[in-house]
Amino acid sequence: MRGRExxxxxxxxxxxxxxxxLALFLPAHFWVLGLAIESEARLDGFLRWTDSPLVKLxxxxxxxxxxxxxxxxxxxxxxxFLPWRDWQGRLIAAGGGLSLAVGLLFLVGAF
Amino acid sequence: MSARLDVWLWLAHRASGALLAPxxxxxxxxxxxxxxxxxxxxxxxxxxRGSVFWGGFYFLFVAAAALHAGLxxxxxxxxxxRLSNGPATAIGVVLGLVLLVMGGRAVAGLxx
Amino acid sequence: MASGEVTxxxxxxxxxxxxxxFRLGYxxxxxxxxxxxxxxxxxxxxxxxxxxxxxxxxxSCAMTVSGRPRWTxxxxxxxxxxxGAVTLAPLxxxxxxxxLVADMTPFFEKWRKAGGRFExxxxxxxxxxxxxxxxxxxxxxxxxxxxxxxxxxYAACDVVRMRDDYVGPAALNRAWTLVNDxxxxxxxxxxxxxxxxxxxxxHTRQRCAQYCPKGLxxxxxIAGLKRRVTAAALKGEL
Lengths: 111, 112, 238
Description:
The complex is a heterotrimer. Chain A is an all-alpha fold.
């Protein structure tokens, strides 16, 4: 792969992979929230488990995935629905940076 | 599969994505605020129980995400597993319905 | 620019085959096409390859040069030689006829499937279009009209590789020039033709635009088609 020349390829691959991972994560997310129906205590029991640093790191990963998919998707919408601008292609790096920043923000808050 | 249906499904994917964008931003802000000092169920439920705003917000979120994920996974399996349109659509519809039901149940549990 | 020795690894056979190595000298101004010609004339006359004009006009000499599709007539050996070697294979995403010759039939079939033919309408002599130089639609046509169907974008496209029904960047670029042509009578039927297995499948990876030897931007054309197709669907024209 040729680095910057293939930015579009990496952006597209990232969009795919993050999208599928998020789609796989959602059922688990909904199941955990659904625990609150039976009792708040069950949800709390699960939330205690999420206090461990490893789980928090994994959660930060999810936050990064979600942000990546969000900014990648916005970039696609711009290319597809707004008149062509060459700088739209250069948003890829900015999107990656923003995603990492949001992930860090989550970690700072979580620890 | 008709050209018209193809266009509508593609447009639904884009439109649900556009709708999700502000919802995700709000979700991320909520997460970063809520996670400070740890999560607990009482804190979450206190925010959501009986709230028309959060009920509407999360139900819209779930519906848009279910549609968006179903359509996205449909084209993913069509292209990477090289399935034809029929089976790919079936997988997308099943995923979308599972997400809608599970997500709707979770939202109902938190709000009602 | 350096001259020197190069190991040319050249594809031999059809879909099944192997790379055969040739050790050759090259000059600083020698093109990859020259190199292939030298192999055929001096080393192995059975080597099959395709070319016509040798000067970047006809678009028939495209091959996969060290992993990316290029016009061999406009590529200097010195620019692509890597660790003393260059790998030559036929264009990807197409059947192989023999050695370096890809079968372009699917490429042109899809070009037709996407409505690549100009539709003059019933009475072209009466419906005369006046098109000014600064007409935005005419500008859009200008941007894509120089395509000579070399197939580089088709070979570069990941969506073509993943989806058998995808018509590819060149065919859609062609359709976009016709959609913007005031004289064309294709109408909504043309848009319906490019929607299914067409513009909506594009992932915007932009490899077509990156590798187009003419510097065209099929991704931009495809994005334009997406908007037209969407608008037509919303208006109930499809």
